[in-house]
Design goal:
Blueprint (H helix, E strand, L loop, with lengths): L3 E9 L2 E6 L2 E6 L12 E5 L2 E4 L1 H18 L3
Antiparallel strand pairs: 1-2, 1-4, 2-3, 4-5
Amino acid sequence: MKPLKGIIDRFEEDIVVVEIDGVTQDFQKNLFPEAAKPGDFIEIKDNQVTILEAETEKRRKEIEELMDELWED
């Protein structure tokens, strides 16, 4: 099965809501590493979830730069 890549949108009790290609899908929280948090890029393959740390950090930096530009005087 092809791995799914997405972004963790939020946690709701025992469910993790993940955005994949613009559509949200629900997954059981017990599939996710304890360190997982909203905004993390993840890959789901064979019922294993991996946090894609490099992609997550890249996105956080891009957002931070956009916020800096937005709030510049």
